[in-house]
Amino acid sequence: MTVLEEGGHIAEILDKRTGINPLWVPPWPSIEPSAYGPAVHAQYGAGAEGKLLAGIMGHNLCLDIFGGPSDEEAAAGLTVHGEGSVERYEIGESGDGLVMQARFPLAQIGFTRRIELAGQSVRIRESVENLTAYDRPIGWTQHVTLGPPFLQAGVTQFRASATRSVTFGGEFGISDYLRPSAEFQWPFAPSRDGGNNAFRQPVMPRPVIAQQQRAQFGHVVAVSGLRQVRGGPGGTRTPNQTVMSRQL
C-alpha cells in the first residue's frame, strides 16, 4: 500500500497475487502540490484545479468541499475538492499500521486517518475535528477513482447498499447515455432511449448520487475478473477475481 505525504492520497493498494492495483494512476507525470506554479506548470491547469491535478492519484479525500470553489474562495487560495487534497500530512507508525494527520488552515479542520493491514484487507478509520468555536456543516467525501486494468468497460461490476438515487444534472461527455437529473431506485438508471440501465456494470461513466436508508452502515464493492463473479463484504473470490470494497 502506498500513501502520499502531500495531498494524503491513497495512491496504491497492490494485490501481490495478481499484480493489480485497482486504483487509478494518472497518465501524466506527477509533482508535489507545493511545487506547483500556474506559470510554469500549465499542463495541470492554471485555475483552481491545477494544484490538485499536479499530484492527484488513487483515492482522493475531498474536505471541506466537493467540486470547485467559488471565484471568491479560489481567490482566497481554496482549490478544487478543498485542502484535504493538497496539504502536507504528518505520517507515523502506529502498531501494525500508519497514522496520517493534517490541519487545514482555511477550513480550520484537524484530520486524522488510521490505516491498518488485516490479512488481504485494509482497514481505514478517519476522524475530523472542528477547530473553530462554533458548529457548522462540512463536506467530507471519499473520492475513490479506479483505473485499468482493474477497471474495464462492460466488465467491472459495482455493488452498493444504495436505494434512492439521482443522475448528475448536467451533460457528461459526448457518450453520455443516461437521462440527466433523473431519480431512480438503485441500480436501474434510466437511459436516454427510454430504457433502464443496470448501473452495476456501466459501459461509460456518469456521476450518480445514491442514498441509503434505514441502515447504520453502508458499503460499495467493485469486482473485476475474467469470468462472471459475485463479490461483497464477506464474499468469496475466484482465482481470476479481484475485489475492492469500502464500508461507509
SSE pattern, N- to C-terminal: EEHEHEEEEEEEEEEEEE
Largest sheet: 4 strands, antiparallel
Low-confidence stretches: 226-245
Structural class given helices, strands, pairing? mainly beta
Tell me what portion of residues adopts beta-strand conformation.
Answer: 25-35%
In spatial order, strands of the major sheet run 4-5-6-7
Radius of gyration: 19 Å
Share of helical residues: under 10%
Shape: globular
User: What's the number of extended β-strand segments?
Assistant: 16
Query: What is the overall number of helices?
Result: 2
Distance from first to last alpha carbon:
20 Å
Walkthrough of the structure:
With 248 residues, the chain is mainly β. It has a domain of 149 residues. The protein is built from 2 helices and 16 strands. The strands form 6 sheets. A 4-stranded antiparallel β-sheet has the order 4-5-6-7, with no helix packed on it. Strand 12 and strand 13 form a beta hairpin. It is globular, with a radius of gyration of 19 Å. About 8% of the residues have low confidence.
Summarize the structure.
With 248 residues, the protein is mainly beta. The chain is built from 2 helices and 16 strands.
Q: What's the structural blueprint in terms of helices and strands?
A:
Blueprint: E1 2-3, E2 10-12, H1 50-55, E3 59-64, H2 71-75, E4 90-94, E5 97-104, E6 109-118, E7 121-130, E8 139-144, E9 157-160, E10 164-167, E11 183-185, E12 188-190, E13 196-198, E14 208-210, E15 219-225, E16 241-247
Antiparallel strand pairs: 1-2, 3-8, 4-5, 5-6, 6-7, 9-15, 10-11, 10-14, 12-13, 15-16
